[in-house]
Amino acid sequence: MAAAAAAASRTLLYSSHSKIFFFPFTNCSRKLHRPIINKNPIFVPLRCLQSAQQNASTTHDPMRSRSSVVDILEERGLLESITSDNLRSISTTSTLKAYCGFDPTAESLHLGNLLGIIVLSWFQRCGHKAVALIGGATARIGDPSGKSLERPELDADTLEKNTQGITKVITRILHMNSISNVNGNDNHLNSSSFFVVMNNYDWWKEVRLLDFLKQVGRFARVGTMMGKESVKKRLESDQGMSYTEFTYQLLQGYDFLHLYQNEGINVQIGGSDQWGNITAGTELIRKILQPDGDVAFGLTFPLLLKSDGTKFGKSEDGAIWLSPSLLSPYKFYQYFFSVPDADVIRFLKILTFLDMEEIVELEKEMNRPGYTPNTAQRRLAEQVTLFVHGEDGLNEALKATEALRPGAETKLDWKTFEGIAEDVPSCSLASDQVLNVSLIDLSVSSGLLDSKSGARRLLKQGGLYLNNSRVDSETKRIEPQDIVDGKVLLLSAGKKNKVIVRIT
Ligand SMILES: Nc1ncnc2c1ncn2[C@@H]1O[C@H](COP(=O)(O)OP(=O)(O)OP(=O)(O)O)[C@@H](O)[C@H]1O
Ligand SMILES: N[C@@H](Cc1ccc(O)cc1)C(=O)O
Fold this sequence. Notes:
Layout: H1 2-9, E1 11-16, E2 19-24, H2 30-33, H3 46-57, H4 69-75, E3 81-82, H5 86-93, E4 97-102, H6 111-125, E5 129-134, H7 138-141, H8 156-182, E6 195-199, H9 201-204, H10 209-215, H11 222-227, H12 229-236, H13 243-246, H14 248-263, E7 267-271, H15 275-289, E8 297-301, H16 329-337, H17 341-351, H18 356-366, H19 375-403, H20 414-420, E9 426-429, H21 439-445, H22 452-460, E10 464-466, E11 469-470, E12 488-493, E13 497-503
Parallel strand pairs: 4-5, 4-7, 5-6, 7-8, 9-13
Antiparallel strand pairs: 1-2, 3-8, 10-11, 10-12, 12-13
Helix pairs in contact: 3-14, 8-19, 14-15, 16-19, 17-19, 19-20
Residues 101-103, 133, 135, 138, 143, 200, 252, 255, 274, 277 line the site of tyrosine (TYR).
């Protein structure tokens, strides 16, 4: 903890207008710390452009030969496409600067978005730099990729709230994981792990339409823009597409150009639905800056799909949110603990940083007789919860899991009840409706079961629990010592169905 606090004190957090930058104090280049401010962001002085190009494409570090981050991503099932295969070799000899953008269209990121954070973290682990970009400007336009309908416009308050929410999630995860590296918990990471959170509204608010059309628009071919998947699909639909959403790809394209020129960022990553937007950026860089050879790269990863083939997303029902205020670490943990056997190995490769050898070994174990069910799921749930919610979140999840396990030895106390309260249905009853009342009656009045006959049947089958202890006697009545700290008790029907009864 002390080391974590010391590392945290080495960070500088400052906010500028609506955005927050987060810069760990590390030995990385000053250029990334302090973006060059251009009065007119479209024009970039030649001197700065040259140094950005050098910075972006030739930051050689001959002393250090790394594993290729591209090969690692491919091995783990995290690579869909790259704009040039040269990225493989360049990534072993140069320090790359990779960014992934997230539009603040919800208050939190979700499991699908986690892939972008994980890929950024792989770049860090291989010695590269990571930048998370909040799309404060692009969210005002709305990305048509993968959407069959025009996105609803977001008002300024919602945008601000969402921006704060997702900035918090990203900084928390990347910060926690950078610190754990600095402490040496992970061999792949070292004190030069580095990340920045930026907001594209900071440059878009300065861009003037006429400058943009003159300097950038001229290089964007309408035919190419129309050929993008996101546009083709929408044009075939009844609703068609607004000019505003049609321009989205150019906005994201310009972001890459801007980040390349001003920050030396030379890789953009995203889910496979982002291919059209990412290549809009590499094309603009190629056409406007006319560099010699490959200097800016795009890399996409496959979309994480549910077993029914639909994408994990914020718009879908029951999103797996990364913010603990929208989904508790306990529920988050439980989600991964319940992943079907058919998915667990794929998820371990994609969503954790465990060595491939361990994952392959777990896969073999699953097929051996005597395998303890859910061993792989437990490892997955632990690792993903640790990455997203840190040690405290994982402990909270494990404690709640244990407390809610029927037959668990854990003594239930008031604090444990508080920890699980959000995740378990509850009811409030007056003390005379509980004390001295038969357990069978209470099972019905608390809403745990529908009928007394059902409660009796369950009790006979050994499935009725009071404070995690199985009850065998049909005549059991609630006594004062059954009420934890004089305030609550927990009733369970089988493994999953539970009710907290609060005494008013
Ligand atoms: N299921 C997913 N698997 C992998 N990547 C995803 C998934 N969902 C979103 N992403 C990626 O996360 C980044 C941000 O995407 P975006 O903000 O559009 O999320 P979204 O949930 O798809 O939004 P919406 O539901 O509003 O379409 C993009 O790089 C996108 O490809
Ligand atoms: N278009 C991305 C977000 C993004 C925004 C700006 C960028 O420069 C890059 C990515 C998405 O949907 O979610």
